[in-house]
Design brief:
mainly alpha
Length: 141
């Protein structure tokens, strides 16, 4: 009895493995994300001088954005990009590149990680939408 397993050889030449299919997107979802993104931008412009209020408003916007897909991957994207974006900004502030008016910790405002997470979700949904549009163009005769 042969217990060895058959191993498939890796593709050679110009063959690439198939890409993981992107999540489906709809014009309504894109509109939802754009409205949330513009709302977040307006909140920053209007309430930057009130960090606690701005953070609460941005967390509300983020929750609405995350609720659209209800995806653990989106939550992970939000948290990782929020944390890494804020860390990068803290390094830039520490190096003297610029300063924030009302920093809370590490020279950055309380709301900054949240806006980085919102930006990541916004970019992700926009890229998916553009990908869907370009795929339709390639498939049409």
């Amino acid at each position: 009895m042969d217990n060895s397993r058959e191993v498939n050889a890796a593709p050679r030449g110009d063959a690439f493995p198939e890409a993981v299919p992107a999540q489906a997107t709809t014009p309504i979802l894109v509109l939802h994300v754009w409205i949330c993104g513009l709302t977040a931008l307006a909140c920053v412009c209007l309430f930057w001088s009130r960090p606690a209020l701005l953070t609460a408003l941005l967390l509300t916007v983020a929750t609405v954005m995350l609720f659209a897909r209800r995806s653990l991957n989106d939550v992970l994207l939000f948290v990782s990009c929020g944390g890494l974006g804020a860390l990068a900004e803290a390094c830039a502030v520490r190096s003297g590149a610029y300063v924030y008016t009302l920093p809370i910790a590490l020279g950055i405002p309380l709301w900054l990680p949240v806006i980085w997470g919102i930006a990541a979700l916004f970019v992700k949904e926009t890229v998916l939408w553009i990908g869907c549009l370009s795929q339709k163009d390639r498939l049409s005769p």
